[in-house]
Each structure stands twice: as C-alpha cells, then as structure tokens.
Amino acid sequence: MKRIVLLTVASFLAFGITAGAQGLGVNAGVNFFNQTRKSNGNKVDDLKMLTGFHIGVDYEIGVAPDFYFAPGLQFSTKGTNIDFVETKAVLNYFEVPLNLVYKPLLGDGNLIVNFGPYLGYAISGKYKDDIADTDIEFGSGEDDDFKPFDMGANIGFGYQLGMGLSFKLNAQLGLINILPDGDSDNLVKNNGFAFSVGYRF
Fold first, then answer.
1. CB hemisphere CA count around 12 (13 angstroms)
2. How confident is the model at residue 98 (pLDDT cuts 50, 70, 90)?
3. What is the pLDDT, as a whole number, of residue 17?
4. pLDDT tens across 103-162, in order?
5. Within 10 A of 110 (CB to CB), how many other CB atoms are there?
6. Which pLDDT value is given to residue 5?
C-alpha cells in the first residue's frame, strides 16, 4: 500500500509539472490539530492541541470567471496531546484535497476562498511520551488503533499577492470515525486548522 501511495505522489507531481506552470502551486505551513473522542458515550475532555506541519502541491483549473477546481496532494501531521496520560498521538497522512476556489481581484492581488472535501490515508503514526515511542497500528482489525482512511471537509481564506505569493488559513473537520470498531458512542475524529504560505507559478 505504501508503494501505491508513493507512486500516486510521483504521478501527481509529474502531472503538475507537465500540465503547465500557470496553475501549479506549492504550499507549506504549520498545523494545529486535535481529536474529537467519545468513550462509552462520554466525551473525552483531557485532550490538547498538537502542533505539526504540512507540505504539498495543487493545480488550479479554471471552471468559471474567478472560480477554479483545485485538486491537490499533501503530507500532513495530525493527532492530539492526551493530557491525562501525558502522551502525544501523532498521525502522518497523505491527503488529497478537492477544493473549489473563488479568487476575485482585490487590490493588487486576489482574495482566496476555498471549500471542499478531502480524502486522507495514514502512512505511519506514533504514541510519544517521556519514556519511549510506540508505533500506532492502522487497519480494521480489533488489535488496530485507527483505520487508515480519513475523510472530511476543508474551508479556507487567504490572499494571493500579484507576484504569486499567498498566505492562507485553512480549517478541517473530520467527518468519519477512524476507530476500527467505533460507533456513535465510541469514536475518534480529526479536526483542526493550519496556516500556510504558498507560491503560484
């Protein structure tokens, strides 16, 4: 599966480079993520935000005046700080955001408003504390910690300067339960926001 993910990354990069420079963008930034958790119907409150990062590419395809479809691919770290056991849960994802972008002219640049779904696939993860790091197991079995597949919604706001440099705030809301044996009373969902700096060629 990891080989398939790596081939997908390479294929997307090749597409972005060969399809033309005008719509190709790169971005990177800092993540601030947490998890919504319930256990036996009770919300788990002793969770704190985890700081991570993301890096990726996207390609804007014009669909109407000032509107673009922007598929992308990025590596992103998510998770949470589990306060009551002083442990970090760090999950590393490859994600495919599928955003509709509205970019009207504003001053010397463009306002950016984007929204749409994202698909994610976890490639690795660790529980980290002061003693040791433990690998997180992904799968659908009863001995696994989390499902590898994630899906949710994006919404973002930002500004692109005339020279192609952009700054953006993006929020994500996980919509599916990533617990292998989860239900409405036992669940884990990723959610958070990120600050990005990007460049559009």
1. 23
2. very high
3. 45
4. 999 999 999 999 999 999 999 999 998 888 999 999 998 889 999 999 999 999 999 998
5. 19
6. 47
Task: Tell me the C-alpha distance between 96 and 72, whole Å.
Answer: 5
In angstroms, the CA 152 to CA 118 distance is 5
Residue with tokens 């973002």: 156
Q: Is 59 exposed, middle or buried (0-12, 13-18, 19+ CB in 10 A)?
A: buried
Per residue, what are the HEC states of the chain?
CHHHHHHHHHHHHHHHHHCCCCCEEEEEEEEEEEEEEEECCEECCCEECEEEEEEEEEECEEEECCEEEEEEEEEEEEEEEEHHHCEEEEEEEEEEEEEEEECCEECCEEEEEEEEEEEEEEEEEEEECCCCEEECCECCCCCCCECCEEEEEEEEEEEECCCCEEEEEEEEEECCCCCCCCECCEEEEEEEEEEEEEEEC
pLDDT of residue 21: 39
Based on its alpha-carbon atoms, the radius of gyration of the chain, rounded to whole angstroms, reads: 18
129-139 pLDDT, tens digit each? 888 899 999 99
**Residue that has been written with the tokens 């433990």 in this structure:** 134
Amino acid at 200: R
Entry pTM: 0.85
Over the stretch 166-199, which tens digit does the pLDDT of each residue have?
999 999 999 999 999 889 999 999 999 999 999 9
Amino acid at 69: F
- Domains of the chain, start order: 2-200 (2.40.160.20)
